[in-house]
Amino acid sequence: MTTLALLAFTSQVAAQECPIGSAVSGFAEPCMCSPSASLKPLSSASIGRVTRGRLLRADYLESSAFHRKMESDIEANNFYGTKELVGLVERASRRVALRYPGGPRLGVGELSRLRGGDIIGHSSHENGRDVDLGFYMKDFAGVPTELPEFTDVNRAGIGEFEESPVYFDDVRNWLLIEALIEDPYAIVQHVFVARSIRRRLIDTGRRLGASEAFLEKVGRVVMSPHADHPHQNHFHVRIYCSAEDLPRCRDRGPYWPWIPEAHPYFARIVPLPPIRL
Ligand SMILES: [Zn+2]
């Protein structure tokens, strides 16, 4: 029996009425009623904070036709996340590929360890809600290229790999940001990246006709971390706790005004000061 079938079966059993006294009166058929009768399909749970947390029943990110694990991160194998985060990577990379075919697969760096907790090389990534994503890149001839590791990009959007220049793919990286922010199931709180990349993204979105309202969302979500860790070679993406992981999962603000009403964080939304794009 598959796990899903087993869960469905278990739920059916739990839904049956339990005969009174069945637990003690020795029915010929064993009673399968659960005293809790509150069985839910088990799915991932993010516990605590991104900087001090755990991950239960993690989903594992497999490579696909649309995304790949960065070669430099394969050995450590920290590709575990909540089902919302793993699904976000799958959906966003697929959407970019469908909207702009012919590109490279999205390069995915580390998420979290199987059970979360401390992870080498990151101050967060502890409870399955952070993922590092490589930039979509092109070579000198404009041909999309898949680099095996994160590669620094300068203010002009130019990097270097094996002594050859490589270029930040403005359109595909914009499409990625759009897909992350518009995802229907996971709510992205932050995309950390260098200031110059943020500038390129907003300029590209404007050039492609994005609305000012959407550009404002991008301007809030995409932010530059402190100067000693500028994120010049990848996007660090963080999602909010899912509603079902609350209250054990914990976030700090800000809470964006587009959080859906159905999510408990809707109650935490406060007016934000204007933002400069
Ligand atoms: Zn990161």
Tally of structural domains: 2
How many beta-strand runs?
14
The radius of gyration over CA amounts to: 22 Å
Q: Tell me what the CATH architecture of the largest domain is.
A: 2-Layer Sandwich
Structural class: alpha+beta
| Average pLDDT | 87
Instruction: Describe the sheet with the most strands.
Output: 4 strands, mixed
Broad shape = globular
Output the strand order for the largest sheet.
7-14-12-13
Amino-to-carboxy terminus distance: 54 Å
What is the CATH first-level class name of the largest domain? Alpha Beta
Fraction in helix: 10-25%
CATH topology of the largest domain: Muramoyl-pentapeptide Carboxypeptidase, domain 2
Unique bound compounds: zinc ion
* Unreliable parts: 1-37
Number of H/I helices: 6
Instruction: Encode the helix/strand succession as letters.
Output: HEEEEHEHEEEEEEHEHHEE
What does this structure look like?
With 277 residues, the chain is an alpha+beta fold. It has two domains: 1-42, no CATH class; 48-268, 2-Layer Sandwich (Muramoyl-pentapeptide Carboxypeptidase, domain 2). Helices cover 25% and strands 19% of the residues. It contains six helices and 14 strands. It has helices at residues 3-15, 71-74, 83-99, 170-181, 195-207, 212-221; strands at residues 45-49, 52-56, 59-60, 67-69, 80-81, 106-108, 130-134, 137-139, 144-145, 158-161, 164-168, 188-192, 222-223, 234-239. The strands form five sheets. The chain has a four-stranded mixed β-sheet with strand order 7-14-12-13. A four-stranded antiparallel β-sheet has the order 9-8-11-10, with no helix packed on it. It has a two-stranded antiparallel ribbon with strand order 1-2. Strand 1 and strand 2 (52-56) form a beta hairpin. Helix 5 (195-207) packs antiparallel against helix 6. It is globular and about 55 Å long. The N and C termini lie far apart (54 Å). It binds zinc ion. Residues 122, 125, 130, 132, 236 line the site of zinc ion (ZN).
